[in-house]
Design a protein that fits this description.
The chain is an alpha/beta fold. It has four helices and four strands. The protein has a four-stranded parallel sheet, sandwiched between helices. Helix 2 (about 55-60) links the parallel strand 2 (about 30-35) and strand 3. Helix 3 (about 75-90) crosses helix 4.
Length: about 120
Amino acid sequence: MITKPKIIIICGPTASGKTSTAIRIAQRFKGEIIGADSMQVYKYMDIGTAKPTGIERSCVPHHLIDIIAPDEHFDAQKYTRLAHETVMKLYSHGITPFIVGGTGLYIKALVHGLLDRKSTR
């Protein structure tokens, strides 16, 4: 039987307080944050993305932020693979994964997959 790791998801629009809320809760429950934002994955794109500041990132480890150059291809499939690997790594170390961001497609793809399994049969 495959055990599905428990994750905490904090989702909402830009500048709604997701990061500060996630940091407070993650500190309390020994968690780390996995970004779920289609713009925050890009390096150098700091304006208009509400990326966590350096101080915020020093409070709790953050993953999948500033991981690719702006001219590189990135999509929900790649996000799902990287996020799943990160979730499993954290889970194996007893760390609670917090999925935090505003890109609903990324969150949906991570939790439910990209394809409707019924339509692929």
